[in-house]
Structure formats: C-alpha cells, structure tokens
Amino acid sequence: MIIVGFGLTGHYVAKALKKVEIPYIILELNPETVAAEKKLGENIVYGDACREGVLEFAGIRKAQTIVITIPQMDTVKAILTNARRMNPKIGIITRSRFISETAELYHLGADEVIVDEKETALQIFHRILSNQQVPVQDADLFAKQARSEIYDKYIEKPIHSNIRMSAKGSRLDMIRIRAKQAGEMMAKNTSQVEQIRVEKGADIAGKRIADVQMRRNYGVSVIAVRCVGKIDVIVSPDGDTILNEGDTAVVIGDREAIGTIMIMFAEKAAYTT
C-alpha cells in the first residue's frame, strides 16, 4: 500500500496498517518529517507523488491500494490521474475538503472519497444527538441515514453499505475504510470490517483485549475502540485496553470468524434459556 502525505491522517492510516500487518510505503514532501520518521523506523521516502518517477519508485504498478491524505486538491487530482493511468486496477482512496469536489474525483478514477466537510457535519450531528441523550446505537443509526442522504444528494457513486458512521467520523471512518479496502484484498476477499457493541453481561465485558486472544484464536483484530459515553476513539488499542459494557469495538477479520466472536459481545440473556 502507498500512503501519500504523512500529516495527522497519514499517521493514523499507517498506525492502523501496522496493527493488521499490512506493508506500506509513505511518500512525503517535507524533508524534516522524512528524516525524523526514518529514524523511528518508518518506511518513508522523500518525493513528489505527482511525478511518475516517484510513483514508479514506490511500486505503483504492483500496489493494490494508494491512499492520498493531502488536502491540496490540484495535487490530489494530479496524483489520482497518474496513479489510475499507471495502474488501472489499483484501489484509490483519497481525501477531499468539500462535498462539491467529490464528483470530479470519482470521475478521475477514485474508488473512495472521504469528505472533510461532510464528516465534520456528521460529527456535529452525532454530538447533538448525544447531548439530547439519544441512545448511542440509535444515534449511530440516525447518523448513518444522514450520511446516505448527503451522499445521495451530492454524488452518484453510492457508499458501501457496511461502512458505518462513528462518533469520530473523519478520523476513525477513514481508518476503517482503508482497513476495509486492504482487508478485502486479503484472504481472497473474505475479510471485512465490523463495528460490534459490548452488550450488558457479555462474556467479553470487563476483559482486556489480550485476555480474549481474538487474533490468535480467531484471526480477528481490534483496530479501534469507542468507549461508552465518550467522543474520543482509541485507535489501534493495545492488549491492555479493557472492553466495558457499552463500548464499541471496530474489528477486522474473516466474515465467518467475526460471526463466531459476536457471541462474546452479545447480551448473556439472549443466549440462555
């Protein structure tokens, strides 16, 4: 996978990819950032991703996905156009500041467009619902419906039905989409990303992620956790992170494996007679 830009968004994309062990290379134009991150062990190189030679060096012709995280639209369009021409089969995920720009980006060949303006509006909408004491699960559903309405109004390309709204829309949703894009290219398209809430009395409630060993036993990784009653999201949680009742875990893994672990998150009463 190729990541263009290593600002805040690029950092979170890389962190999520590390969590699920997906290799990547970062293209960055700030020489100080490149030097500092190289010392920390990042696979990062200095280069202008608008240039074909730089994309060639990054492995564009064999890459499965390129993630464009920079905000400058002219640059985004140039990178997108070159990437699509050099590798017609590559998955292209890009960032856009405004909804009005999305149609052109899809026309140029983007597979997914993450809109800062839209995500900000949805985040505000979700916070309003939370302040009105609307249950978290209902707020998620209303926000998901609002997301669909926004997309239907401004662009023709439909959003994937299983990409769901989160309280930290812009940050978490971008990570989820990238993980989903990469996950679908693994294991012969049998992987997916799901959001699962820890229900009352669930077996997993009160336990550390390391105690459950979902990855070892089922091949399922927790890539983010939204704690109940909080707006902030824990991205790439470590093994000591505790899953409490009402928390929501974002997981990636095989469809059947995710189906198997769902019982650990379910309310005990639902499985007892």
UniProtKB/TrEMBL annotation:
Segments forming domain RCK N-terminal: 1-115
GO biological process: potassium ion transport
Matches recorded under PANTHER family: POTASSIUM CHANNEL PROTEIN 2-RELATED-RELATED (PTHR43833), POTASSIUM CHANNEL PROTEIN YUGO-RELATED (PTHR43833:SF9)
Pfam family, one: TrkA_N
Annotated protein name in UniProt: Potassium transporter KefB
Top-level taxon of the source organism: Archaea
Single GO MF descriptor: monoatomic cation transmembrane transporter activity
InterPro entries named among the record's database cross-references: NAD(P)-bd_dom_sf (IPR036291), RCK_C (IPR006037), RCK_C_sf (IPR036721), RCK_N (IPR003148), Trk_Ktr_HKT_K-transport (IPR050721)
Domain RCK C-terminal: 181-267
